[in-house]
Amino acid sequence: MRQPGKLNLITDVPGLMLGHATHPVIATGVTTLLCDGAWPAGVDVRGGGPGTRETEALAAENAVARVHAIVLSGGSVFGLGAADGVTAVLSERGTGLQLQPGVPAVPIVPAAVLYDLTVAASGWGVEPPYRQLGIESVANAARDFTLGSVGAGRGARAGLVKGGIGSASLVLGDGLVVGALVAANPIGSALMPDGRTYWAWPFEIDGEFGGLRPAADMPRSDPVPDQSRLGAIGRFTAGANTTLCVIAVSAGLTPAECKRVAMMAQDGLARAIRPAHTPFDGDTIFAIAKGVPLGDNRMVAIAEIGSAAADCLSRAIARAVFHA
After folding, report:
1. Kind and range of the H or E run holding 287
2. How far from the centroid of its chain's Cα atoms is residue 58's Cα?
3. Residue-wise pLDDT tens digits, 281-320
4. Nearest alpha-carbon partner for 282 in 246, 230, 243, 231
5. Count of Cβ atoms closer than 10 Å to residue 53 Cβ
6. CA–CA distance, 69 with 12 (Å, rounded to integer)
7. In whole angstroms, what is the distance from residue 219 CA to residue 42 CA?
8. Residue 67: closest CA among 290, 282, 320, 303
9. Rounded (5°) CA angle 116-91-243
10. pLDDT of 277 strictly over 80
11. Which of 284, 285, 295, 306 has its CA 20 to 30 A from that of 43?
12. Interhelix angle for 298-323 vs 255-272, to 10°?
């Protein structure tokens, strides 16, 4: 059986670091994944209420399709400002596209946001905190990081329970590692009807999210459980929920191949959350890749990577809720 990397985090993929910044008062925050250069990237958006920045820059037919960092943030549309802070810090460091001599470097920093706004947010006036939180997230970047109610996952909910930040990895051999990062804030549930077993349980490795298994007679037929309770807390609003994800692979993929991996990884989201990809969610998956060449059987390798990415994402979602 294949095993996770040393940290069981997306940063088991070489060349990546991650930093959280959590607001000291308001239940919100920012999580930034930093790349050691410009990594080929793709994105797949399947939720009905996404909030994103720079996703069109990643289209394979466009000129760039590379990233220097990816930002996940709370704050709904205000959280997109976190990427401003990350972009400014990276440019100051000289990271980014150098289009002309002597002018600032231009980092490519896509972002996606989740909705965690509360009454407390009304106190920030015309200066939402996200640009500063973005700056702080870069300063906090490291290979090891905390899961649960931190960073972009600080104010997240997964159905009726707390959501948060999750991550997982899988070593495929020959230098190939797949990792997943998630900020889980879906309208759907990561938990089965017993309220304790994760839908992702078949993919769990070494009890990483509690080791629980469902009873044989557990009902599994309710497509949207707890509708009345979800409605009572305002979850049935477009854009009020989402699952934000990043898949990383230590392989030399093209932007188009990254897109395919992101598309395959959506299966892992649907396995771990029920329901997924609803009109009320903004489900978005980025995929980035840099590393070993794939050799002659390239399409077979991409199929294996995409399948591993889906499994990693299912595990990361369960770990997000477990640690929250």
Report:
1. strand 284-292
2. 16
3. 889 999 999 999 998 889 999 999 999 999 999 999 999 9
4. 243
5. 20
6. 16
7. 37
8. 290
9. 25
10. yes
11. 295
12. 40
Q: How far apart are CA 244 and CA 223, in angstroms?
A: 22
Give dist(CA 166, CA 181) in Å, integer: 6
**pLDDT at 34 (0 to 100):** 98
Structure tokens at 109: 């920093």
* Radius of gyration for the alpha carbons in the chain, expressed in angstroms and rounded: 18
Comparing 128 with 49, the larger pLDDT belongs to 128
Per the DSSP assignment, residues forming a β-bridge with 45 are 284
Residue 30 has pLDDT above 90, yes or no: yes
Contact of 156 with 324, CB cutoff 8 Å: yes
Euclidean distance between CA atoms 125 and 157, whole angstroms = 25
AA letter at 216: A
Q: Give the integer Cα–Cα distance in Å for 153 and 185.
A: 8
Closest C-alpha to 31, from 43, 42, 41, 18: 18
Structure-token pair, residue 130 = 């996200």
What's the token pair of residue 42? Answer: 């793709």
Q: 124 phi and psi, to 5 degrees?
A: -90, -5
Of 239, 204, 224, give the one whose Cα is nearest residue 50: 239
Q: Which domains does the chain have, with CATH numbers?
A: 10-323 (3.60.70.12)
Separation CA 73–CA 84 (nearest Å) = 12
Three-state DSSP state, 161: strand
Residues in Cβ contact with 125 at an 8 Å cutoff, skipping those fewer than 6 apart? none
Element (H, E) at 261: helix 255-272
| Amino acid identity at 319 | R
Q: Helix or strand or coil: residue 246?
A: strand
Q: How many CB atoms lie within 10 A of CB 275?
A: 16
Q: Which pLDDT tens digit goes with each residue over 165-187? A: 999 999 999 999 999 999 999 98
Mind listing the pLDDT tens digit for each residue in 121-148?
A: 778 889 999 999 999 999 999 999 999 9
